[in-house]
Design goal:
There is one protein chain. With 329 residues, the protein is mostly helical. The protein is built from 15 helices and no strands. The longest helix has 44 residues. The chain starts with a helix and ends with a helix.
């Protein structure tokens, strides 16, 4: 189309068409930018609450920041990678203690996530069928997840007391297990006490997520499997678990991150100094920072923990995405 023809077509167009299109264009841009404008306050708060302290913590990890520089931490001398070398020197006391805490945390996290997923999935499958009182059971199952963390853990502290706790009363006085009441908040048994509280708090979340995932499985699949003679375990293995795979992939990752970073549960359960058997990394870093007043070393440990979680999360997401692509093909 030549320029002359284009001018003729514009001249023949109804009056006001070009003006109305020009007016609509800014309005369209304004509507497209409105969602981003509404997200801006949340973005600013995210920067202030998470990213800014993270950057400050990384800077602190390169400084010899002790109690002598706490009023003006910017004047603390630079140590370079000294704090990181101290943290990963597993032959020295600081590195050996961090390694022990890391191994305890890994074992605790794997057991807690596995038990939370197993109990939550079993409860969701049990409540999948309609029966009388199902709504009441669902509400009762969600009580540990709805309770405030501090109130729930403090209740467990009283239950784990050596002399007058409910746990020893049931196990020793009622069931006559053991020659004498056990210490649950100190010694090796502290690991099992921490694991019990963590699973009690975490499995309702797994139950809630798996229950939501079960709603998306068509009932016709179960009916067809039942007509083919498949039993309950075969239906769970062939239909339920494969259909829940995307849900379980996200659920396991979230449970892993929450459990590995859990600070409130061990801190309320044991106080500022957790026993060696329940010395999680989160409490260990707190002790290295706020008990020994060596904030540089504590910041270096936090950065190492962050890097570990990033590597694990990235590897997990990469493995699950490859598995999804191979399944789709």
């Amino acid at each position: 189309m030549t320029t002359h023809t284009l001018e003729e077509s514009v001249a023949k167009s109804p009056p006001g068409t070009a003006a109305s299109s020009a007016r609509r264009r800014p309005g369209r841009f304004r509507r497209a930018g409105l969602p981003y404008l509404l997200l801006l306050p949340a973005l600013v708060l995210e920067l202030l609450v998470h990213l800014v302290p993270m950057v400050i913590g990384i800077v602190m990890s390169f400084k010899e920041l002790t109690q002598f520089y706490i009023r003006d931490w910017g004047t603390a001398p630079w140590s370079g990678l000294g704090n990181y070398r101290l943290s990963v020197d597993f032959h020295a006391p600081v590195g050996a203690a961090l390694l022990h805490s890391f191994l305890v945390t890994v074992g605790f996290t794997l057991l807690s996530v596995a038990l939370c997923w197993l109990i939550g999935t079993a409860a969701a499958l049990f409540l999948q069928d309609t029966f009388r009182g199902r709504g009441l059971l669902r509400a009762l199952f969600l009580v540990p997840y709805a309770l405030p963390v501090y109130a729930a853990v403090i209740t467990w502290v009283f239950m784990f007391q050596h002399d007058n706790g409910l746990v020893n009363h049931v196990l020793h006085d009622q069931l006559h297990l053991g020659a004498q009441p056990a210490f649950w908040l100190i010694g090796d048994n502290s690991f099992y006490a921490l694991l019990t509280v963590s699973v009690w708090k975490g499995w309702p979340f797994a139950f809630l997520v798996v229950t939501a995932g079960l709603q998306n499985i068509p009932g016709e699949l179960y009916e067809a499997a039942a007509l083919d003679g498949a039993g309950m375990w075969q239906r769970i293995r062939r239909i339920t678990l494969p259909s829940l795979r995307p849900v379980n992939q996200v659920l396991v990752l979230v449970l892993f991150l929450w459990t590995f970073n859990d600070f409130n549960t061990p801190y309320v359960l044991f106080g500022r100094s957790a026993p060696a058997a329940a010395d999680l990394v989160s409490v260990h870093i707190y002790q290295a920072s706020f008990v020994t007043w060596n904030f540089g070393t504590g910041s270096a440990m936090s950065v190492l923990l962050l890097l570990f979680l990033l590597v694990v999360t990235g590897g997990y997401l990469l493995a699950t995405s490859r598995e999804r692509r191979s399944t789709d093909v």
